[in-house]
Amino acid sequence: MHLVTGCAGFIGSKLVDRLLALGHRVVGVDCLTPTYEPEVKLGNLERALAQPGFGFRPDDLVMADLESLLDGVDVVFHLAGQPGVQTSWGAGFADHLERNVMATQRLLEASLSTGVKRVLMASSSSVYGAVKGATPEEAPVRPLSPYGLTKLSTEHLAALYGARGLDVVPLRFFTVYGPRQRPDMAFHRMIKAALGGPAFPLRGDGSQRRSFTFVDDVVDAVVRLADAPGIAGCVLNVGSSTTTALVEVLDLVEHLVGCPVPLDYQGRPPGDPDLTHASVERLREVIGWVPTTSLEDGLAAQVDYQRAQNGWEVRTSRIPSVVSGSLSS
Predict the structure, then answer these.
(1) Which residues make Cβ contacts (< 8 Å) with residue 191, sequence separation at least 6?
(2) Within this chain, do residues 88 and 59 fall inside the same structural domain, yes or no?
(3) Which tens digit of pLDDT belongs to each residue from 91-111?
(4) Is 36 a catalytic residue?
(5) Are residues 299 and 252 in contact, defined by beta-carbon separation less than 8 angstroms?
(6) Beta-strand pair 168-173/118-124
(7) DSSP string across 139-187
(8) Domain total in the chain
(9) Pick from 236, 187, 230, 178: which is nearest to 15 by CA?
(10) Residue 238 above 80 pLDDT?
(11) Among residues 19, 22, 40, 203, which one has the least CA distance to residue 120?
């Protein structure tokens, strides 16, 4: 049996659906924190809740009886946590500390005591900080934000419990996008703006580049790592090896929606790196994984999903179907 923490979230709910489709029994846990509407999160689980192989527990990992939760579980997919670079500054750090560090420590402790065979744990490219090019896992880690610091702390916890015999594999995700993406994330807000929502807050000039990675590709890697041999304690990047500038993504969203994205120009916030760039050679060696979804195809799927879910009226102003820059992912 598999346990997915953060099962009602963006990546977690997609992972649950994939595991169920493969015939696995899955327990999902999510305390439905108010980072966005709990109704949206429960909507992510609509398909899973109709499956006999899925059980949902609305528990908080910081307070729940985790040993009973882990009874009969072989593999843990630990995706729960407090997201957001900007919300981690100031008073918001307390939530990040509790939901990222404390929750992870309790889960690893319980996994060790109950004999869980493997814990696959979500980390982040934010642990790297400022980089100049493609970043392998052995690159220096110098987070630029309290959020990145908490994710790096969870990796150190993984190493400590690994030394005690727990098979833990931290996965550094690089800017995941696609259907069910959180409403606070950039692509969701761009598409919403093009469909008539509030203007997109462009922080800086949009030249910052990211390894944007489609959610289905991420889920494919995570599922395949569940039983991959010889990876205990191995940190792995999961991301696109191609980078794209934010302004190029804006062009592509406008092309796909057929309407301009209104912009609200703002200054660059603290903790926002100029570049994230995944080197995935280690993951390719372990399971032969490379991302297969182009940025255009992945964004088209997200546009279709947001249209269907929210029913925004499309703006009447049309733009030419021209996209600038290299947009493959």
Answers:
(1) 253, 257, 302, 303, 306
(2) yes
(3) 999 999 999 999 999 999 999
(4) no
(5) yes
(6) parallel
(7) S----SSHHHHHHHHHHHHHHHHHHTT--EEEEEE--EESTT--TTSHH
(8) 2
(9) 178
(10) yes
(11) 19
CATH number at residue 231: 3.40.50.720
Q: What is the pLDDT of residue 325?
A: 28
Q: Give the confidence band of 312 by pLDDT, cuts at 50, 70, 90.
A: low
Contact 66, 34 (CB under 8 A): no
Q: Tell me how far apart the alpha carbons of residues 235 and 288 are, in angstroms, rounded to a whole number.
A: 16
The structure tokens listed for 300 are 């088209």
In a domain, 322, yes or no: no
Selected catalytic residue, list 147, 161, 177, 265: 147
Q: How far is CA 213 from the centre of its chain?
A: 9
Q: Please name the residue that has the structure tokens 């992912």.
A: 329
Residue 271 has pLDDT above 70, yes or no: yes
One-letter amino acid at 139 equals A
SS (H, E, C) 72-103: CCCEEEECCCCCCCHHHCHHHHHHHHHHHHHH
Q: In terms of Cα–Cα distance, which of 75, 61, 62 is closest to 27? A: 75
Phi, psi (degrees; rounded to nearest 5) at 232: -55, 130
Domain enclosing residue 78, as ranges: 2-176+214-238
The structure tokens 């088209």 sit at 300
Is 324 part of any domain?
no
Averaged pLDDT score across all residues of the chain: 93
* DSSP for residue 41: H
| Distance in angstroms between the alpha carbons of the first and the last residue of the chain | 33
- Give all strands of the β-sheet with 75-78 in edge-to-edge order: 54-57, 26-29, 2-5, 75-78, 118-124, 168-173, 236-238
Are the C-beta atoms of residues 131 and 275 closer than 8 Å to each other? Answer: yes
Q: Decide if pLDDT at 313 tops 90.
A: no
The answer to the question of residue 329 being in a domain is no
Residue 290, token pair as written in the block: 């490379």
Per-residue pLDDT reduced to its tens digit, 201-221: 999 999 999 999 999 999 999
